[in-house]
Amino acid sequence: SNVIAAGTNVGVWRTEDGSKTWTRISALSNPEMQWIVSLAYHPANKEILYAGTPHLPWKTADGGKTWHSVHTGLIDDSDVFSIRVDAVQPDRVFASACSGIYCTRNGGALWTKMQGIPGTDRRTHIIAQDPQSAETIYAGTTEGLWKSLNGGLTWTKKSAHSINSMAIDPHDGKTFYLATESSGIIKSTDGGETFQAKNQGFVNRNITQFALSSSAAPTKPNLFATTAYDGDFGGMFRSESGEAWSLVATHRRL
Question: Helix, strand, coil: what percent of the chain each, to 5?
């Protein structure tokens, strides 16, 4: 766990002492590896590392001494937003890109585009795998969350939220968190069947207006506030004391 790789806009860096010291392991002379979007280690070999860039993926098998492009089968100029190495079959690797989801079964030598998700949802920011069920795959796209129970052969849409990132509980694959574009953080404990907002104490509200109602009971007037730039969980809030607030109107619920 002390071996960590970091992708930056000046290449790939690595630490072997838990971040006390860092070494750049990609060459500055390689312009294709200056901006790193995603990284993924081989689960049993710290010398094997995959890197996604705004222009296709790369791989090293010697800890970064040498890198080579592994893009056969990918649409040219694909932004590789995330990479997931199968913990059970490490030669099977998933990559999500602006052009969709790809899978390789030979460590990146050849990629195949996965079908089943409509083209409107193909821009996939995150690909994730259930830690207890290797064939259960999640794809977080700009148009929603998709789930496959058979390694990506067929997919079911579980949410319409625009997904930026995802974190799965390593001990319970049905429990995960999603970072969304307009709803903050949402959580599921049943594999994506239902979701709950988890933004208490987190969302930075931008208050645009504040009003106090003319209540018949002056000890408990209604307070109203409106917010901007809070997505699905912003809008008009109401409080009877100023201590606790409830959301009473949003752009989705008027």
Answer: 5, 45, 50
* Biggest alpha carbon–alpha carbon distance for the chain: 75
Q: What is the mean pLDDT of residues 78-90?
A: 93
Distance CA 90, CA 72 (A): 18
Nearest to 56 by CA among 46, 67, 64: 67
> How many Cβ atoms from other residues are within 10 Å of residue 145's Cβ?
27
Residues ≥6 apart with Cβ < 8 Å to 169 = 131, 175, 176
| pTM for this prediction | 0.82
Residues, the chain? 254
For residue 16, give every residue at least 6 positions away whose Cβ sits within 8 Å of its Cβ, in sequence order, or none.
2, 3
Distance separating alpha carbons of residues 242 and 35, to the nearest angstrom = 46
Q: Strand (E) positions, 43-143?
A: 45-53, 56-60, 68-69, 80-85, 93-97, 100-104, 112-113, 124-130, 133-141
Handedness of CA 6, 7, 9, 13 (dihedral sign): positive
Tell me what pLDDT residue 139 has.
97
What pLDDT, in 10s, does the model give residues 168-206? 998 899 999 999 988 888 999 999 999 998 877 666 666
Residue for token digits 């979007």?
37
CA distance 176 to 179: 10
Q: What six digits make up the tokens of 236?
A: 């008009």
Q: Contact, 90 vs 105, CB < 8 A?
A: no
Burial-class residue 220 by CB neighbours within 10 Å (0-12, 13-18, 19+): exposed
